[in-house]
Amino acid sequence: MKAWISDIFRAEGFNGGEAELVADSLVDADARSVYSHGIQRVKLYTKRIMSDCINREGCPVIVVDRDATAVVDGDNAMGQTVGKFCMELAIQKARQYGVSFVTARGSNHYGRCAYYTRMALEYDMIGFSATIGGGNLMAPWGGTDSRVGNNPYSYAIPAFNHYPVVLDMAMSVVAKGKVDVASKTHSPIPDTWALDQNGFPTTDAEEALKGSLRPIADYKGSGMAIVIGMLCSVISNGAIGPTLKRVYGDFDGGLNKGQLFMAVDISRMTDVQVFKERMDRQIDFIKASPAAANTEEVYLPGELEYRSFDRQMKDGIVYPVEIIQEIREIAGGFGVAEPEWLKQSGVGQ
């Protein structure tokens, strides 16, 4: 799958390394059963690329570089290109200063926040990343029209014997991508996910797409979304508020997304091995809680995704037929050959 998706982005004008990076970020999300940020995004990315909303030759550049901090101009490159550049910079600065704060402008949709925070784990660091959302998708608490992004963020914290603890969440009850998947598969959604254009809860994904997403924890989630958006975009001068474009609705240039990347070098404060062992003890303590009715066990943030990744890397990634058909149509439009494994599967034929 990764090679097929990579070939599509090559056909759309990206170099091999960049095409592979974007493909990896999308297939990685699918492997972790986060289908909202997987290959179903290829259709959106393709539309933005072919509408010249993304700079195929874009190259992120550091415009402010002071000690542990930096501001990066993404040059309207693919969000994954900007995200990888910035997280690597954050890790580099954390090695030198113990902590880092790198913010970007001129970026685009970069996929899952956790794709970048997990990079810090390879260096025994704690990673953090956040991004302005794909448009003003939520009304501020007490308001009636959408003026705030759902502004997702992620933390990644290493452990020893357990999976790392990786929290990745938007400030809406669900990411808009999950409503998109429900729309494409003609599936109902819980009435807690979104409001229709009249402000009423809806189970119809199509009506939800016309309305707004609901914030988590009501006023608390709304407040967190507001602050995260400010941290991502106000320092870097990325898009926010009236300048924030809709990733699905505005095709008149780049998104100028603001994003934030931080890393913490654990070794500056304590022995890394000791830290990981303490993490394991806390994880054990939390998981020892008796499971509630209709619950198999207690899971830590990111644990289900890691389990899914291990399983699907062994048995293969399960995809909705509708998504495979969509990718097949996109690939065919660029003359990208269908992979042999798909032909043999008979899916959609």
Task: Summarize this entry quickly.
This protein has 349 residues and is an alpha+beta fold.
What is the CATH fold-level name of the largest domain?
A: Ribosomal Protein S8, Chain: A, domain 1
Total number of beta strands: 9
Major sheet characteristics = 7 strands, mixed
CATH superfamily of the largest domain: Malate/L-lactate/L-sulpholactate dehydrogenase, NADPH binding domain
**Percentage of residues in DSSP E strands:** 5-15%
CATH architecture label of the largest domain: 2-Layer Sandwich
| Poorly predicted residue ranges | none
Helix content: 40-55%
Query: What overall geometry do the principal axes of the alpha carbons give?
Result: globular
**Secondary-structure element series:** HHHEEHEHEEEHEHEHEHHHH
On the 0 to 100 scale, the average pLDDT is: 95
Radius of gyration using CA atoms only: 20 Å
Spatial strand arrangement across the major sheet = 1-2-3-9-4-5-6
Give the N-terminus to C-terminus distance in angstroms: 18 Å
Structural class assignment: alpha+beta
The total number of structural domains is: 3
Q: Counting H and I runs of at least 4 residues, what is the number of helices?
A: 12
CATH class of the largest domain equals Alpha Beta
